[in-house]
């Protein structure tokens, strides 16, 4: 039943992506196991929808295969790779196809691709043109479902229909560049069977469910107040970008706490913001003494965001050190949510056990280089296993870590 559901879900996704498939030439590459079985079910549904379907079988037993028999009953042409040693028939079929469906290998591949399978993929690569739509069943052949690594023979898809749940490798680089449009096919797995999965893919629809309703009689005090500590003489634009983002997502009042050295350059750029000019150092950076000004302003704010464009001068590091000491665990600000970003994070590096001075509700938003500095890792080490590194950092520090990049990872203290 699951295979039938999978094939139906994939065929439906193809039709929704392509439109009317009547008369459309579809080549389905069929491998062994369930992935190939899904491809055979797809063949049947697309044929019944009016497509001109052909099958190319690799390493698949034909005896007793009910789905293959159903394809034969429909007179769907079948080519066996072992009977096409120079891939001439494959080359001809692929050249004239409108849609090529990759149902060769699924999640079980572990060994490097070689031999006939490598020849099939390389032949498709040679003849594939921009007019061809390549559809991957569950995941592109050659993409590792667990870590996103890619075999040199792998082909990038235009559409990937993954079954049941997204696979981690589809969302991690470099594999995510091979996925194209990602569709999750419902194959009838009960929701209760997936309830304990700790990893979730967040979509726009998921986020929309968490957005609070906007009161039609609300005012700026109704929707929360954000205090943003940002900017320096070298990074004036960062102050505007972060303020504009806070305003865009609906904060009722946004205050920019910025060095007075750049106040004249920034004031009025985000017209909705208010301003708290802070003492500046000799180079236009925020002065260490400015921490007292920020602490004094905190009552009444729901969020304190620190870091964008602050720079990394010694005076700025001392500001962060003092801000943590005076405000981090101050019970007066128990309900305040800290968000530490950019140079706010970079200036934590020389501060001993800085995470113990931040509230547990804090959110850290590093890009790979910033997370690497905090952990003493090279960027390549972070990128090699983004999921594991983000999880371990969140658990070690007891904070939410938002690792930015191609498919952002949000990790909680519970992993």
Fold and architecture overview:
There is one protein chain. The protein has 415 residues and is an alpha/beta fold. It has 2 domains: 2-189, Rossmann fold (3-Layer(aba) Sandwich), CATH 3.40.50.10260; 220-365, 3-Layer(aba) Sandwich (UDP-N-acetylmuramoyl-L-alanine:D-glutamate ligase), CATH 3.40.1190.20. It has helices at residues 2-18, 33-48, 66-73, 88-96, 115-127, 168-171, 204-210, 236-248, 263-266, 290-297, 314-328, 343-346, 368-375, 379-384, 386-397; strands at residues 25-30, 52-57, 78-80, 99-103, 133-137, 159-163, 181-185, 225-229, 253-259, 274-278, 303-306, 337-341, 363-365, 400-403, 409-411. β1 (25-30), α2 (33-48) and β2 (52-57) form a beta-alpha-beta unit. α1 packs across α2 (33-48). The radius of gyration is 27 Å and the shape is elongated. The two termini are 34 Å apart. The mean pLDDT is 94.
List the helices and strands and how they pair.
Layout: H1 2-18, E1 25-30, H2 33-48, E2 52-57, H3 66-73, E3 78-80, H4 88-96, E4 99-103, H5 115-127, E5 133-137, E6 159-163, H6 168-171, E7 181-185, H7 204-210, E8 225-229, H8 236-248, E9 253-259, H9 263-266, E10 274-278, H10 290-297, E11 303-306, H11 314-328, E12 337-341, H12 343-346, E13 363-365, H13 368-375, H14 379-384, H15 386-397, E14 400-403, E15 409-411
Parallel strand pairs: 1-2, 1-4, 2-3, 4-5, 5-6, 6-7, 8-9, 8-11, 9-10, 11-12, 12-13, 13-14
Antiparallel strand pairs: 14-15
């Amino acid at each position: 039943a699951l295979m039938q559901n999978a094939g139906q879900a994939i065929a439906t996704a193809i039709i929704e992506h392509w439109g009317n498939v009547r008369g459309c030439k579809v080549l389905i590459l069929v491998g062994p196991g369930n992935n190939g079985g899904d491809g055979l079910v797809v063949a049947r549904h697309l044929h019944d929808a009016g497509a001109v379907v052909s099958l190319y079988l690799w390493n698949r037993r034909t005896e007793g295969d009910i789905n293959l028999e159903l394809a034969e009953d429909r007179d769907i042409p079948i080519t066996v790779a072992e009977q096409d040693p120079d891939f001439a028939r494959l080359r001809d079929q692929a050249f004239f196809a409108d849609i090529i469906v990759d149902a060769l290998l699924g999640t079980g591949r572990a060994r490097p691709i070689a031999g006939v399978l490598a020849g099939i993929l390389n032949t498709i690569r040679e003849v594939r043109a921009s007019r061809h739509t390549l559809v991957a069943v569950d995941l592109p052949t050659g993409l590792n479902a667990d870590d996103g690594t890619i075999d040199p023979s792998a082909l990038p898809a235009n559409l990937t229909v993954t079954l049941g749940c997204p696979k981690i490798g589809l969302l991690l680089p470099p594999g995510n560049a091979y996925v194209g449009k990602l569709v999750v096919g419902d194959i009838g797995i009960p929701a209760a069977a997936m309830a304990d999965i700790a990893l979730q893919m967040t979509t726009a629809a998921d986020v929309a469910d968490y957005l609070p309703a906007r009161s039609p009689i609300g005012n700026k005090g109704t929707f929360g107040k954000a205090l943003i500590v940002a900017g320096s003489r070298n990074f004036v634009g960062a102050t505007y970008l972060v303020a504009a983002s806070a305003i865009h997502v609906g904060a009722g009042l946004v205050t920019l706490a910025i060095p007075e050295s750049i106040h004249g350059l920034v004031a009025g750029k985000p017209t909705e913001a208010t301003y708290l000019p802070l003492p500046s150092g000799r180079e236009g950076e925020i002065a260490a003494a400015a921490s007292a000004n920020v602490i004094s302003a905190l009552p009444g704010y729901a969020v304190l965001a620190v870091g964008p464009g602050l720079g990394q001068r010694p005076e700025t590091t001392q500001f962060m050190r003092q801000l943590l000491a005076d405000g981090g665990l101050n019970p007066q600000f128990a309900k305040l949510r800290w968000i530490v970003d950019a140079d706010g994070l970079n200036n934590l590096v020389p501060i001993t056990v800085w995470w113990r001075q931040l509230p547990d509700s804090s959110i850290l938003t590093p890009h790979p280089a910033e997370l690497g500095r905090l952990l003493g890792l090279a960027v390549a080490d972070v990128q090699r296993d983004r999921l594991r590194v983000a999880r371990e950092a969140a658990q070690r520090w007891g904070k939410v870590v938002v690792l930015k990049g191609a498919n952002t990872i949000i990790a909680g203290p519970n992993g």
